[in-house]
Write a structure and sequence with these properties.
Elements (H helix, E strand, L loop, with lengths): L1 H8 L1 H10 L3 H5 L3 H20 L1 H4 L2 H10 L1 H15 L7 H19 L2 H25 L4 H19 L5 E2 L7 H7 L1 E2 L3 E2 H19 L1 H11 L1 H6 L4 H27 L1 E2 L7 H11 L11 H20 L6 H25 L1
Antiparallel strand pairs: 1-4, 2-3
Amino acid sequence: MTQIQAMDDNPSITGNRGRNRKTIWDRLHPYRFKLGTLSMLVALWLLFMGMSPETFGSGRIYLSLMTSIPFPAILALGLTLLIVSGEMDMSFPAIMAFSSYVFALTFSTTGIAGLALLAALSAGASAGLVNALLVVRFGVPSIIATIGAQFFWYGLATLLADGMAISLVDIRDTALNSILTGRLFGWLPMQAVWCVGLAIGASLLLHRHCFGDNIRFIGDNRETARMMGVPTAKTRTLLFVLMGVMSALVGVMVCSEMASWWPTQGEGYMLLVFASVYIGGTSVFGGEGTLSGTLIGAIIIGMIEAGIIAGGLSGFWTRMVYGLIVIASVSGYALVFKKTDR
């Protein structure tokens, strides 16, 4: 008894106990960004449910969201990896348009959907490799290089197609259409299945593989990473190529869903994709980010337009609300990261 009392009176021992005792906040602190994004999603859902219970109480709205949200969400997954590494890609909508043009042209010429898919993915990878060459080899800042690339790929696709759309009605009769954008069990859009699968794969790559460690290390401090032996050039090159492939895949999916290709395909995705990434908690400074946060961010962005329209407001509100949410998210996370750095 005397020994126990002596231990309790010993400030060094009680101090260690206090330090080892974690509060609920301490345990939740590593997940604060995910919880913040998830709270935003729940709050928006409750708001829209209150504004339009008929729409958001029906299953049809969720099937519609599962049809449209996966396209920007898959692009956002690839862009998250790039931004975590400290890079940027403004050319993915144009790469999407160019690669899907290659898909449409190949399918229209040969009638072989699998060959057209391979051609589109190769085109996307090549476009990503061009971006990597400009940024990694020539040292052009990625935001400048990819803005130029965006004009180039859009211009090339429009020039080759002579500004004309391509009908792909026959794609609906192919197995590729069922695999990419068919309906699993007769109701579940396959693009949603692909999106969840890619999110899991990319998350494992970022958080459970040495390649992901390299990405975060490069995003934190590229020069230090290089001095520590991290293959910075190879990693950044692979990320640009991966972004090109994912852009091509989404372009093919859109062609398959809509059964057509048009020269401005991909326009309109830029704001949605960047908003999804930053709402999801990815640092604008690089080094930090989660794929699950990006996925939740994409759901938030996809739900906003449907909620605004269902609530009886004009569609003109959509962009303003997108802008407000992006500004609030980026500012909030910037303040949190700044405090963490201190």
